[in-house]
Write a structure and sequence with these properties.
The complex is a heterodimer of chains A (429) and B (487).
Chain A (H helix, E strand, L loop, with lengths): L1 H17 L3 E3 L14 E3 L4 H13 L4 E4 L16 E4 L6 E5 L4 E5 L4 H9 L3 E2 L10 H7 L6 H4 L2 H4 E8 L4 E5 L11 H5 L7 E9 L1 E2 L3 E9 L4 H12 L7 E6 L4 E9 L1 H17 L5 E5 L17 E7 L4 H15 L4 E4 L5 E6 L5 H15 L7 E7 L2 H7 L8 H11 L14
Parallel strand pairs in A: 2-4, 3-4
Antiparallel strand pairs in A: 1-2, 5-6, 6-10, 7-11, 8-9, 8-10, 12-14, 12-15, 13-14, 13-17, 16-18, 16-19, 17-18
Chain B lengths: L2 H14 L4 E2 L2 H5 L15 E3 L4 H14 L3 E4 L16 E4 L6 E5 L4 E4 L5 H8 L4 E2 L12 H7 L6 H4 L6 E7 L5 E4 L11 H5 L8 E8 L1 E2 L3 E9 L2 H13 L6 E6 H11 L9 E9 L1 H17 L4 E5 L2 H17 L6 E4 L2 E2 L5 H15 L3 E6 L4 E8 L6 H18 L18 H4 L2 H14 L29 H4 L7
Parallel strand pairs in B: 2-4, 3-4
Antiparallel strand pairs in B: 1-2, 5-6, 6-10, 7-11, 8-9, 8-10, 12-14, 12-15, 13-14, 13-18, 16-19, 17-19, 18-19
The chains are: A alpha+beta (429), B alpha+beta (487).
């Protein structure tokens, strides 16, 4: 045991040599799903982050990257965590080339800070994610909001990336131009990798001009109008009116869809009226209205930690009515009522279960949903448990069958052969 | 033919039928290059599978025999990405050309890799849909090749590249296994291998089925042509359009020499004496496009346009596009030989880099015609030379390389859409560090540890793929021993 007792000061010394700002973890503030790390380090540069990961490799430390921590609670807790690398000291917007519609940003910069810099040039990063989240965290979790329908997820807007590998080697991919096919696109690989392949320290994005006017068309259906709303979502999503978002929200109290139209003053007015007609003609007798305020269905998704579970369903849009029926059936089987919302027009919905729901009922809900949707060998969708008590994830499986799973394991083994980067996350160990 | 490839012949005949395995030297010669004819290599064998199962069986045989293999679509690539190996098998995907399914409500099509790009849009048109990526070769190029190269096209400024429009890929891995990447919806579960695979230039496996997004056909399309005395005036118009918050579907520019070539080839009747022609295309809902069009027109005039033409019906638009679309082939009218370059610069550096190209051209006595996707800074300088004149080809290659250096100095890229292939692997170390290239090749090692799948492309130096150690589950010993709170 003597070696272990002397080891901790040695680790601390090595970490401090790599990065001056290191502290021991706080059991309350730094715990991730109940797992308390030993150290928290705050690198101020990619070089310091690289030195930290070299030290972590030398001492075989399990590492969890952290931005603002807003998404850390989504997914299984780490199976081990010796060192948290907190990116919040790397919070700069390094470059905003307004004429090129490109921004290069440190991973720890918040979305809110970036947005304020870009807004001064009438531009934005089209992701609709919480302002307190960090750029690195948003890329690492692949988070996007309603405008995913038109603009995609972080992987679609990311044009360059700097990462530090598990062994401390710094690597770049992509660049500062939107059109670029030189080399493998590691930015795509790291988007949504949840810190399991390495540490993201810098990201370069394609930007968009902010629209002059934005307006929502909302349509309220009775709770029995599932087939009608599905038809209306499909009609809106397939229209040439170029919606930026096609959202759905369904709770015990209401069933509603919302379509976001962005553009010029006169153009949006005209498109709102045509979209309203289109939705009305898709059937049912919805109450259709123009709303200037956001249709924040994503606000209905509870903050991390509070729901019992968040289940993500992805699907081909022609199956939306089946998906809603399957959600109803899965809810009935478990005796619960999920809060369902999300970018339905983009083939994606979140089902949030109440904190009061038992683990057994959550497991039953997930299993019934997967059975009902009958996802075949020809992939047409998925049912993923994004957040849930560990016992639920263990019993139900986070993802079900994942296309290319063997290759994913091979990629993980190449980037992180010691399985030290966020062990336990993303279905890995 | 080597012993190992010769031994493969009867096995491949069993898999695909004797008629679909080519061994005749004369026939093999027809596959010696793709669209980049300066690199040639006759394959040991050519095989034409008809199904995904046949592709998997072929690759399994190659992997077992340690024989390299290269996939080829329509052979229109411009970087030698489908250049065969003399010691290897060329797998030609052109028999796999079924459009398997179109789901108009989901706006998805499932196609085989040999399907041509344009035929997807043609099949989708009756549903009011189209497939957005539109490389200039779209009449002949294959969707499988588009996936390998992450192809763009004139309209990718607004609508994105192939990677933004592919939601699922069935592939044969380099060890011969059939698997899917992506669930077809566009939502990623686990690692985004779909994104990493797209644009990997055939080095990570062979695509056997593709799920693509279809988009609603735009309500209106307006095309505007503005003529300028100089490219820098046209460049000013481009910057001002972007600064006005407008993202056109396409912004293209041609300089005087490329206009001259296009006139000679297709009599496109562009404004006489123009030093530059700018083509701006706007698409979308009528009410938005009308508003944007008047802004764009005003900007083009303010930048000094000598003439503006507008077109809103397909026939008139085709007239405007005729010159641009013929430009590459057209320079054949004014020069015996030419190199098509593909570099990218930040849009705001366009003027400076064009000036640099002009002085490089002048210093070397080598003419350069410029055709480019001005909206996204993607330059296609056509470097003209006469191979009958001793030394000209070398001088042209030098200028072509210097243009890429200028792109990199401006913060750009060595390729925007043609790919690295064999042609540009030597430039990769100018754009990326050895650590960058090493890290990219970790992906290669995960997919193709034996390095048999289109080897020798993209990377100047192959990485040796090491053994993979085991995993770690337990917390660190010091943590487990409760020592973590020691200070």
């Amino acid at each position: 045991m003597d070696t272990e007792r002397t080891m901790v000061p040695a680790i601390r010394d090595a970490l401090v040599a790599a990065c001056p700002v290191v502290r021991s973890a706080d059991s309350a503030a730094d715990a991730i799903g109940g797992v308390v790390p030993s150290f928290v380090a705050f690198p101020a540069s990619t070089e310091e982050a690289s030195a930290l990961l070299r030290a972590a490799a030398a001492f075989d430390l399990a590492v969890v990257p952290r931005g603002a921590g807003t998404g850390l609670g989504w997914g299984p807790p780490p199976s081990a965590c010796d060192l948290v690398i907190d990116l919040q000291a790397m919070d700069q917007v390094l470059e905003h080339a307004a004429g090129d519609l490109v921004a290069r940003v440190q991973a720890g910069a918040t979305i809110g800070h970036l947005a304020s810099v870009l807004a001064s040039a009438g531009q934005e990063l089209v992701l609709d994610v919480p302002a307190d989240a960090t750029v690195g965290g948003v890329v690492a979790t692949g988070t996007a909001g309603p405008r995913r329908f038109r603009y995609g997820a972080p992987r679609d807007l990311l044009i360059g990336i700097t990462i530090v590998r598990a062994d401390g080697v710094v690597a770049h991919a992509g660049g500062k131009v939107v059109k670029n096919v030189a080399g493998y696109d590691l930015g795509k690989l790291f988007s949504g990798s949840q810190g399991t392949l390495g540490l993201i320290t810098e990201a370069t994005f394609r930007l968009h001009p902010r629209p002059a006017v934005a307006a929502w068309v909302t349509a309220d259906y009775g709770l029995s109008g599932r087939a009608r709303v599905a038809a209306a979502v499909a009609a809106a999503a397939g229209s040439a009116l170029v919606p930026s978002a096609v959202e759905l929200a369904w709770s015990a109290a209401f069933l509603r869809m919302g379509v976001l139209l962005e553009g010029t003053e006169s153009g949006v007015t005209e498109r709102v009226s045509r979209m309203s007609e289109l939705i009305a003609s898709a059937g049912g007798t919805p109450t259709v209205a123009r709303s200037e305020g956001p249709f924040r269905s994503w606000d209905l998704v509870p903050a991390a930690g509070s729901p019992a579970a968040v289940v993500r369903v992805s699907f081909w849009l022609s199956r939306l009515a089946d998906v809603l029926e399957a959600l109803a059936a899965a809810g009935a089987s478990a005796g619960l009522r999920p809060m369902v919302s999300g970018p339905a027009g983009a083939g994606m919905l979140y089902a949030c279960l109440d904190p009061g729901v038992s683990e057994e009922d959550t497991i039953r809900f997930v299993r019934t949903l997967r059975d009902r949707l009958g996802l075949s060998s020809e992939p047409r969708g998925s049912v993923a448990v994004l957040a849930a008590p560990p016992a639920v994830i263990t019993a139900a499986g986070a993802y079900g069958p994942v296309p290319g799973e063997a290759l994913m394991r091979a990629v993980k083994n190449q980037f992180d052969p010691g399985h030290r980067m966020f062990p336990g996350r993303l279905g890995g160990s | 033919m080597t012993t190992s490839t010769e031994a493969l012949v009867p096995r491949l005949r069993d898999i695909c039928g004797a008629g679909n395995v080519i061994t005749d030297p004369l026939e093999l010669r027809t596959y010696e290059c793709d669209g980049l004819t300066s690199h040639r290599s006759v394959p040991a064998l050519v095989v034409l599978p008809a199904t995904a199962g046949e592709v998997a069986a072929i690759v399994t045989e190659c992997a077992a025999a340690g024989v390299p293999f290269v996939a080829r679509g329509s052979g229109t690539g411009l970087s030698g990405g489908a250049l065969p190996r003399q010691d290897g098998v060329l797998i030609v995907m052109s028999r796999m050309r079924a459009i398997v399914e179109i789901d108009p409500v989901s706006r998805r099509a499932v196609v085989e890799p040999g399907v041509t790009n344009l035929s997807v849009s043609k099949a989708a048109a009756p549903f009011g849909l189209f497939y957005a990526p539109d490389p200039s070769s779209q009449v002949v190029c294959s969707v499988g090749g588009n996936v390998a190269e992450n192809s763009g096209g004139a309209h990718c400024l607004k609508h994105g590249f192939t990677v933004h429009h592919v939601t699922g890929l069935q592939i044969v891995t380099p060890s011969g296994e059939l698997t899917w990447l992506g669930d077809g919806t566009g939502v990623t579960t686990g690692y985004d291998l779909l994104g990493a695979f797209t644009g990997s230039e055939g080095t990570l496996g062979i695509v056997t089925k593709i799920v693509v997004k279809l988009m609603p056909l735009p309500e209106v399309v307006h095309t505007l042509l503005a003529a300028y005395t100089t490219t820098s005036e046209g460049g000013r118009a481009v910057s001002d359009i972007i600064a006005a918050g407008i993202v056109p579907a396409a912004i293209e520019m041609m300089d005087a020499l490329s206009i001259e070539a296009a006139e000679a080839a297709v009599h496109c009747n562009y404004p006489a004496g123009a030093g530059a022609v700018l083509i701006v295309e706007l698409d979308g809902p009528a009410s938005e496009v009308e508003a944007e069009l008047s802004v764009v027109r005003a900007i083009c005039e303010a930048a000094g346009a000598t003439e503006i033409r507008a077109a809103d019906d397909p026939a008139e638009r085709a007239v405007i596009w005729a010159g641009r679309k013929s430009a590459f082939a057209a320079v054949g009218r004014i020069s015996p030989s030419f190199i098509v370059q593909d570099g990218v610069v930040p849009r705001t550096s366009l003027g400076a880099v064009l000036a640099q190209i002009a002085s490089l051209s002048e210093a070397a006595g080598i003419r350069v015609a410029n055709v480019f996707h001005a909206g996204d800074g993607n330059l296609h300088p056509l470097v003209l030379y006469d191979d009958a004149v001793p030394g000209q080809e070398t001088a042209a290659e030098k200028v072509s390389g210097q243009i890429l250096d200028a792109c990199l100095e401006a913060g750009g890229s060595i390729t925007g859409e043609h790919g690295v292939g064999v042609d540009k692997s030597r430039y990769m170390p100018k754009m990326f560090t050895s650590a960058d290239l090493d890290t990219m090749q970790l992906v290669r090692c995960a997919f193709d540890p034996a390095s048999l799948c289109n080897p020798g492309k993209i990377f100047p130096t192959p990485r040796l793929c090491g053994e993979v150690p085991g995993r770690r589950r337990a917390p660190h010993p010091a943590v487990a021993a409760g020592q973590a709170e020691i200070f």
